[in-house]
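Appendix B. Chain record.
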Amino acid sequence: MNGSLPDCLPVNVFTSKKGFFRRAFLFMYLLAGTFFIAAGQLGTAPVVPPTGNFKIDGFVERQSAQGDWTTGPGGAAPGTYVFNPTTGAPLLILSYHLLDLYNDQVNDDIFDGGNKLFQDPNTWGWRSQKPPAKDDMHNVGVLLTQDPITGHIWVVISGDRMSTNGTSYLDFEFYQNTITKTGGPIPGGTGGFVSTGPNGGRTIGDLSVTLQYTGGGSFASVSYLKWTNTSETTFDYKDTIPPPGTTYAAANGGDAPINVPYGAFGQTTYSTLQFIEAAIDLTALIGGITSPSECSRLPFKSLFVKTKSSAERTADLKDFIAPLQINACFDRTKPVFTTCPAGSNLGCNPAGLPAAGGAVVTDNCSVVTIVSSEGPVTSQGCSRSQTRTYTATDACGNTQTCDQVFTWTVDVTKPTFTLCPESSNLGCNPTSFPAATPTASDNCGGTPVITGGVLGDPVNTQGCTWTRSRTWTATDGCGNTQTCTQTFTYTIDVTKPTFTLC
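Structure tokens predicted for this chain:
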């Protein structure tokens, strides 16, 4: 120790599983040095979910009434743990179980060497290779949750390491703009990262939170760095110390292994100092003030988990898990449609649906985006219907829908006369024309309307031969028409014959 401050000031937490003398010696050692380490604490983070808050005790399984990562001796009540004990699948909103390959020379991906934490992430590279055993991670747990009293947003994090030889560092880096992995493929591939942060690949206020497993002692620590400007054009990570009572941390420092039922490194237990966890008040760390409201949210969009060679800003980067994209808000209330456009009957053979519009939405917290989409056309005979669904989405991803239903008829077929009165020859000098009543049907159902049937004017076709016709028109509901005609033929002859030779 050379009398200068280190690059980052860790908040330390001692597990209760080692002896008092080791902890007392460590305190005296730190106080005798020339740099400061702020003491953290074991304990229960005041957050919900999970029900019963979250116990930071160095165990994966629930040991008491307080919540934990998975079920255990403390019980299995729903909502009191984060992961399915068998599969490790997340069970709570804003919980994530990240997995990384371990002890794999071919398929794992690690930083390609010489990459430093403080550098622009756009300059980092990766390759396929197995990391050093003490930097090789398998399980990472993340839960974003909230203190119901203060409204502060907390992150509960945990991780593991393959080898407990020496000291290991697990880094959780929170980005206000997105960072993504590029390149590949695996195995044998290489690539890099694309970060959209405007200040040297990050954004002022981004955070690096490092959990430190200390080899040879039951000692866990949390170190904090915050991205800031060092001049008008340069940026770097600087130490930040959180307020008291905002950090809990523990490693499994006991002599006996602890259970990890969903498995780690091919086993179902962790050996001593192989697992570490922490709960951190992120709102306090970034200097925010919130009320206990569901509209509270964090500005971070990406979380990048990696291992590194030390807690310092100049640390070499080792293993990593591809960046996780997060939406850290706690609004669970759906938007409300105050106006949902009414559907309508579009009549016969429409050219298409009317233009979308007219939906009005309110939300308890944020601006809402509304999009519309049309479902499939359903048919029943000549009848058609189609539903347009309006989907309202708020900034936290809560959605609400309302439906606008359109109906119409497709009918381009003419009606059919089921009875068209027969034409006939009425003989000579008829004095009347028989009455008749035609009938008609339509392919789409309903009874066509029949009009007409008025006798037309007599037509002399040849000599004394005349015709006279009735024409009926059947019209269906869509205006398609069909006609039928009844024709009478008759002779008009009232002149006596003439003898041409008498």
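Further analysis of this model is presented in Appendix C.
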